[in-house]
Amino acid sequence: MIALAVVLLAAAEIQGYISDAACGWNNARPGKEAQECARKCVDAGWPPVLVLDGGMSIFKIENKAERESVLPFVGEHVTITGEISGETLRVKAIRKSPAPKPKA
Length: 104
What we know:
The protein has two helices and five strands.
């Protein structure tokens, strides 16, 4: 369930959850259960992915070094400085950020 996106030509700040490729958007939410599930799947060998805020768009992390850079953030809401091209995200920098407030 990987969504296509418009190519971002310049680095931009992108927000979402670092999840796992097995469960994707299902683990892209606050809470201990979702975070633990995402971590277990990544530990079991599923690659980390970014799930954008506000939907089910999932992006693969481009290369091994970038995937390793996001591992400490699995299950967390993050802000990534990077570029999206098709189904792939190029990570330049990542930091933990507050999750968006749920809609009423």
